[in-house]
Design brief:
By secondary structure, the protein is mainly beta. It has one helix spanning 2-18, and strands spanning 35-38, 41-44, 51-52, 55-58, 61-64, 67-68, 78-80, 86-87, 92-100, 108-115, 124-125, 130-132, 137-139, 142-143, 153-155, 164-166, 171-173, 176-178, 186-190, 194-198, 203-207, 210-216, 226-228, 242-244, 249-251, 254-255, 265-266, 271-273, 278-280, 283-284, 294-295, 300-302, 307-309, 312-313.
């Protein structure tokens, strides 16, 4: 109900303002190709019926998604390309809060888009949602707390899911400050569902879909920690759920109890073994004859005595003739 009321109010405002003629000021000087360079970030002025990122210009007005931006000075409005930041001679803009109407074709509306407290003269866009001016750093249009602006910089990676920055004192994952050493913190790699990082003291992981899930991997040794992949074959789907350090093997971000990291071997997406035990999803398979243990496919395995579905014995299954 609340969304419907908000949508109705915004739609009424758009209709009303869409019929209002704006006073045009003298155009600012823009090159013929309609592009400028600022700190190696390309910025462009929108012509009529052009769009970039979430912004568009039509009927001599600027829109953020389907919301008319009444505060904008249209003649000084510039969009930072490959980002969602924009500015004019009064404000810096970012789609901080977007509401989409719950009906087909009703559109999405920028509920909040003015970045507060910006020094426009020194403002510059960095990358991955980060920006800064002489006083503050920003992530997705919101100020970051406790930032040393002179040392603030982006942490580079090859992942489209890892957005991080640091200053001389702190590390930030998106807008969240974590207790990491900024001098040794680094991006490791990404896998199917997660991203991995480390510093001199800890290893971290987080889900690609949720940056708030970032957590320290318990007891991991960062100096020897490495991610490993499972093999791929006609009956085995490869995946990247495993890791090793000098002390342990890991499934996802959990220690595989009693594992021997020196002899540990992933066999499939769920099944692994070392010199002493076999494991399914990081859990020990009880009673396995490790000398004859082998993988059948991603979920099934066998030894001379039994067939196993993950860690459970398949009742009455003959290891010699069983086919899943």
């Amino acid at each position: 109900m609340k969304k419907y009321i908000i949508f109705t109010i915004i739609l009424a405002i758009i209709v009303l303002l869409g019929c209002t003629k704006l006073n045009m000021k003298k155009d600012i000087a823009i090159p013929k190709d309609n592009k400028l360079q600022l700190s190696q970030i390309e910025i462009i002025q929108l012509n009529e019926n052009e769009s970039e990122s979430v912004y568009s210009r039509k009927n001599n007005s600027i829109f953020c998604q389907d919301s008319i931006m009444n505060e904008v000075d249209i003649n000084s409005f510039l969009v930072y390309k490959s980002s969602a930041y924009a500015k004019d001679n009064k404000n810096v803009y970012f789609p901080i809060e977007i509401i989409c109407a719950n009906c087909p074709g009703c559109g999405c509306f920028c509920e909040k888009y003015i970045v507060s407290g910006v020094d426009i003269q020194t403002f510059k866009v960095l990358s991955n949602g980060y920006a800064k001016d002489n006083n503050f750093a920003y992530y997705n249009g919101l100020k970051l707390n406790d930032v040393n602006i002179d040392s603030f910089t982006i942490i580079n990676s090859t992942s489209v899911y890892f957005f991080a920055a640091k200053d001389k004192n702190n590390v930030f994952i998106q807008n969240k400050k974590i207790n990491a050493d900024p001098n040794t913190f680094e991006y490791l790699d990404e896998r199917d569902i997660d991203v991995w990082m480390k510093d001199k003291k800890n290893v971290w992981t987080m889900l690609k879909s949720d940056s708030s899930s970032i957590q320290i991997v318990e007891k991991a040794d960062p100096s020897t920690f490495k991610l490993i992949s499972t093999p791929k074959g006609p009956n085995v789907s490869g995946n990247e759920h495993y890791a090793l350090d000098k002390n342990h093997a890991y499934f996802l971000n959990k220690i595989i109890e009693d594992s021997d990291s020196k002899t540990f071997e992933p066999l499939s997406i769920f099944i692994s073994k070392d010199k002493n035990n076999a494991y399914a999803s990081g859990n020990k398979i009880i009673g396995v004859d490790i000398k004859t243990f082998e993988v059948i496919n991603s979920h099934y395995s066998k030894d001379k005595n039994n067939v196993y579905y993950l860690k459970n014995i398949v009742k009455d299954a003959d290891p010699e003739t069983f086919k899943p």
